[in-house]
Amino acid sequence: QVQLVESGGGLVQAGGSLRLSCAASGRTFCTFIVGWFRQAPGKEREFLAAIHLNGGNTAYAYSVKGRLAISRDNTKNTVYLQMTSLKSEETAVYYCAATSDNNLVGWDDWGQGTQVTVSS
Fold this sequence. Notes:
The chain is mainly beta.
């Protein structure tokens, strides 16, 4: 099992930037994949990006490619999500999750989420 703690959320103006952090502990950090998701009120959870901690391969949802960047610092057991040109409709709770599934389907462990509010 992996324990995940998100941070870095807050209030930002439309067009602004924000960097979220996901600190991991528990299972060996480099053996799995970490992803970022978000869920807005009344909407389904949406996949944003993922990174393999052993090698750094990344994957992005088409809708956010070019504006969001996922990265990792294995020395700190932390994964980051840099978000730019934020829009008001991206107000949501942002979660990180971990999996050992290379198909990015079975996400086993989740953080508690961090709120991001984008004001227009």
